Amino acid sequence: AFVRGPTNFLSAKERVVAFQNEVARRSADLQPPLYLQSDFRLGAKPDDALVDQLLRLPVEQQPTAVIASNDLMAFSLLRSFYSRGVQVPDYISVVGMDDIILTNYTTPALTSLRLPRRQMGLEAFAMLQRLMEKKPNQGEEKVIVELRLIRRESTGLARQHR
User: Fold this and answer.
1) By the 8 A CB rule, do 73 and 50 touch?
2) Which three-class secondary structure state does DSSP give residue 14?
3) What is the distance between the alpha carbons of residues 82 and 87, in angstroms, rounded to a whole number?
4) pLDDT tens across 15-57, in order?
5) Neighbouring-strand partners of residue 113
6) Which residues is 111 bridged to in the sheet?
7) For the chain, how far is it from start to end, CA to CA, in angstroms?
8) Cβ(100)–Cβ(111) under 8 Å?
9) What is the pLDDT of residues 92-131, one digit of tens each?
10) What is the pTM of this model?
């Protein structure tokens, strides 16, 4: 399952597109994912409702992993699963995005996609310099960076492969 961020955030839209592209690339290996909606805040009430929604599905339809659009949402999902007695990663894996410093301090420690912040800062600075040299309204520029999966305790083998 993929938990989207707010639809009015460009970063949230881009993360959904990246996830969809990766699913399409691996479609032979994956079941069609569930797409769920939340927000980027920690402790958001929608995350409790999302977990309840997932747990109400027949077992064979429940996802074996949930990817959240950011780490704060993933923290909320971890808490929601824990409060319902659902073992992470034994029953379901949870992955966040951004790899903020607190990912090492959850129980279990959160697997996350790390953004190359230094590279992003350098790219943003170079882009700003190029924009300042150009005339206004000369088009948008986009840079795509590679993320790195940082595996921690919140992910494991899918239930059916144990």
Assistant:
1) no
2) helix
3) 7
4) 888 888 888 888 777 788 899 988 766 765 667 889 999 999 9
5) 97, 149
6) 95
7) 20
8) no
9) 999 999 999 999 999 999 999 998 888 888 988 888 888 8
10) 0.84
